[in-house]
Each structure stands twice: as structure tokens, then as C-alpha cells.
Amino acid sequence: MKAKLISIFSDSEEAKIRQLLQELELGDQKPSQFWRKMKDLAQNRLTDEILKTLWLQRLPTSVQQVLTGNKEAMTSLIITADRIVEITDSRPQVNAAVSGSNPEIARLVQAIENLVSRMNQLEAQPQRSRSRSRPDRSKPRRHRSSTPAQEGLCFYHSTYGDKARKCESPCSRRQPPKN
């Protein structure tokens, strides 16, 4: 009768292994407590090397970086992990695969899709002038010098003085053509 009650109310071995491989997380436990829980669930069905790998994967990233590749005995690694967590006093970060049903990710994906759609609409619209006072390019522009022209002189004489090679009327320096 006792054996039957235990078998009914206890998890099956398959359920324990599934919990160990998929569901078990560090949470707010110390790494040493987490290791003991993993060992209890494994019930000698998994090697210590496999358990060590699973244990390391579920520790915070800062602890993983220190312990990965360390060849010390498991008891030494557990003590070191406890110290690191105690010193860093940070919340454990779980390294888990992100499921596609995460609402935050779905919201971000939707926002990106909206931005891409809006960019495509803007690219499809005809380009409009940013300035409302754009000069009319069909009319020739007049450039005026910042210095006032000398009275009675053409452009060439006012610019080049006596060294001017050309002259235009009206100009006070214009000489009548030589015959």
C-alpha cells in the first residue's frame, strides 16, 4: 500500500528527467542548491559530466565566463560559483531560448514592420520642395557686386582698371576706334 501511494503521488522518472532538461531554472537559489536539486532529479540516470554542462548553462553569464573550461573538481566549482554569485550580488540571468510567443518580441516585430511600411510609403510619394521660396530657374539671375561700380566705367575698367583689355559702352574710358 505504501509503495502504491508513493508511486501515485511521486513524479515518474520520465517527468523528472523532462523537468531537469527543460524546466528547471536557477531562480533565487544558490548554485550549490541548484546542483543538489539537479542531482536529485537525475537519480544517477545522467553522468556528472552531463549534469555539469546543464548546470553551467543555467548559471548567470558572469559565473559561466569564470567557470567554463575550468578543470577543477565539481565541489570546487560549486563553491566558486556560490562565491561569485554572492560577490556580484546580482539577480541570476537565465540563459534560455526565447520562444516565439513572447509578447514583447511580437510587439517589437510589429513596430519594425510599421516603420518599414511607413518608409516605403514615403519613398513612393513624389519629392516635394523643402523650401517654399525656391528661385525660378527659368529667369536669368542678376549678380550684383558687393562693391559699388565706379561712376561712368564699364565692368572691365571698374574691375581691371588700366589693365582692362576690353571695354563696353557706356564707359568714360572708351576711346573712339582708330582708323
From TrEMBL:
It comes from the Eukaryota. Residues 120-155 are annotated as: Disordered. This is Uncharacterized protein. The lineage of its organism: Eukaryota, Metazoa, Ecdysozoa, Arthropoda, Hexapoda.
